[in-house]
Amino acid sequence: MKLNDSLSRFRLIAIVEGWSFLFLLFIAMPLKYIAGYPMPVKIGGWIHGLLFVAFGFSLIAVWADRKWKFSKVLLAFICSLLPFGTFWFDKRIAKESN
Questions:
Q1: Long-range Cβ contacts of 71-76 (<8 Å, 24+ apart)
Q2: What's the pTM value of the predicted model, to 2 decimals?
Q3: Taking a C-beta distance cutoff of 8 angstroms, is the pair 72, 42 a contact?
Q4: Whole-number pLDDT of residue 98
Q5: CB neighbours of 51 closer than 8 A, spacing ≥ 6?
Q6: 88 lies in which domain range?
Q7: 3-state secondary structure 16-79
Q8: 1 within domain boundaries
Q9: Please, which residues have CB within 8 angstroms of residue 35's CB and are 6 or more apart in sequence?
Q10: How far apart are CA 71 and CA 77, in angstroms?
Q11: From CA 4, how far away is CA 15, in angstroms rounded?
Q12: Averaged in consecutive runs of 10 residues, what is the pLDDT profile of the chain (98 residues)?
């Protein structure tokens, strides 16, 4: 994946943000609430938060650059709030980056 355009950068950030969300939900949260070890949530939460902000900025950049409809941008944002959503959305837009 080349990172020379806004869509490629968005896709990369979205995938990394999606993995950080899954880490938070399925590894860090159980460690905190089942094992009593809160540090992964603290560190993972910070990383995920920064990636989520980067996701938002890159989504705005793609919206401006690619002239996406607002409905598509809204779908991308909603997908970022759902587990596995960014992966589904990435598969849907993968053909645009060719």
A1: 76/14
A2: 0.91
A3: no
A4: 63
A5: 13, 16, 17, 20
A6: 6-97
A7: HHHHHHHHHHHHHHHHHHCCCCCHHHHHHHHHHHHHHHHHHHHHHHHHHHHCCCHHHHHHHHHH
A8: no
A9: none
A10: 10
A11: 17
A12: 85 97 97 96 97 98 96 97 96 84
Backbone angles phi, psi at 41, to 5 degrees: -70, -40
In a domain, 84, yes or no: yes
Tokens of 16: 């990394």
- 28 inside domain: yes
User: Does residue 86 sit in helix, strand or coil?
Assistant: helix
**What whole-number distance in Å separates Cα of residue 77 and Cα of residue 89?**
10
Place of tokens 């598969």: 91
pLDDT score at 15 = 97
Distance (Å, whole) CA 62 – CA 38: 36
CA 60 to CA 49: how far, in whole Å?
17
Q: Count the domains in the chain.
A: 1
